[in-house]
Amino acid sequence: MLLKNCRLVDAAKRDVRVEKSIITEVGENIRQAPAETVFDAEGMILTSSLAEPHAHLDKAFLAERIENPSGDLMGAIMAMESSRGLITVDDTIARAERAIRLMVGNGVTAIRTHADVTEWNDLDSVEALLEVKRRTSEIVDLQICALLGWPLSGSDGRHNRELGRRAIKAGADILGGCPHLDEDPSGANIALLELADEMNCGLDLHTDEHTDANRVSLEDLAERVTQTGFKNAVTASHCVSLAMQSHDTQRRIAEKVATAGISVIALPHTNLFLQGRETTTPQPRGLTAVATLRKTGVRVAIGADNLQDPFNPIGRGDPLESAGLAILTAHLLPQDAFDAVSSVARQVMGLDTTTISVGQTANLMLTRAAGLREAIATTAERPLVMRNGVVVSSRLAAVN
Ligand SMILES: [Zn+2]
Predict the structure, then answer these.
(1) How far is the centre of ligand 1, averaged over its atoms, from the C-alpha of 303 (Å)?
(2) Distance separating alpha carbons of residues 144 and 112, to the nearest angstrom
(3) How far is the CA of 43 from the centre of ligand 1 (A)?
(4) What topology is assigned to 2-49+354-394 in CATH?
(5) What is the pLDDT confidence band of residue 81, given thresholds at 50, 70 and 90?
(6) Cα–Cα nearest to 265, from 231, 297, 299
(7) Which helix H or strand E contains 4, and what residues bound it?
(8) Distance between CA 146 and CA 47 in Å, rounded?
(9) How far is the CA of 38 from the centre of ligand 1 (A)?
């Protein structure tokens, strides 16, 4: 396959050849080979494809059915639990698949989704998402994180821990949980690390998703990961209350997070909606301390979290929308915001990354914009999306 007249991030005009899953040639005026498919990019920007490192596909598009009038996190959780009877496995499969196809059309080729695993819905979400993973295996890399309920520690946590074991055995990739909602956050961190060690999988924890400056379980998590020498990847999502600390405390915790090798995912979309409702002055922003974390060397990706459900009534399934929010709320430069929803997000997910050069895996997209800033500003159309050298979404006719 030959992509003619692509614009690269440095504004250079190049043709790019893809053979099987690999970029094999980048140059000017590359001649078409016999029987080669050719697309004319007409100066559109060619970049790596995008990734969504934190989704809840089992809840996508529930906003019409389940309301959250209080608008906060507990309001959303209670609304979900009281509406479990309205949700079936088949319905979850249909909504999740719809969300994935929407995201792929927006340039996403890798998604990590959390799947509720509680005593109310058992493994229903995991099984639904495993079916969705089978149905979409040709177009996206889908990672399933079993989001365990609480409590997790002691004898009271036995049932939730057993659900975690069953979820991994059923095919979930990694374990998750919400230590900040547990009566014993440290106990939950210990239990999750032990369980992930036992099941030999990674962790992605909803961490400190609140603006209470007196509660920070991220530091405890970082210390325990370092002390135990836990060998699989650990991600801390949200980490909102870190932003409520003094700068010295932020730095101290960020250094421990960096030492532990924990990645952080900031989720401006959903946290701007859910957080800070109980405090009017000064009103918190609901986002983690992105600048301090990045300055300390912590890998920070940006995700969307929820998509039109009780946790976030809006969203277009477009990481460029999240990148735009990161520019406004986390003050990232456009290039950094783009990386946070593409290469950095893929690194957090343990996936390889793509630059436009020979030998790279062809996870690519064309965006109808002249540069990254404009692509983010306009969330411009992505007429061609490629995963491992295969076109997974196209609104562009081949010219030959
Ligand atoms: Zn989440």
Answers:
(1) 9
(2) 6
(3) 37
(4) Urease, subunit C; domain 1 (2.30.40)
(5) confident
(6) 299
(7) strand 2-7
(8) 31
(9) 40
Taking the centre of ligand 1 as the mean of its atom positions, its distance from the CA of residue 353, in whole angstroms, is 24
pLDDT at 248: 98
List of long-range contacts for 330-334, beta carbons under 8 Å, 24+ apart: 330/266, 330/268, 330/287, 330/290, 330/291, 330/302, 331/290, 331/291, 332/290, 332/302, 334/372, 334/373, 334/376
pTM, rounded to two decimals: 0.98
Average pLDDT across the chain, whole number:
97
Angle at CA 222, nearest 5°, toward 216 and 228? 135
Q: Sketch the domain layout of the chain as residue ranges.
A: 2-49+354-394, 50-348
CATH of domain 50-348: 3.20.20.140
Cβ neighbourhood burial of 101 (10 Å; 0-12, 13-18, 19+):
middle
For 253-288, write each residue's pLDDT tens digit.
999 999 999 999 999 999 999 999 988 889 898 999
CA of 114 to the centre of ligand 1 (A): 7
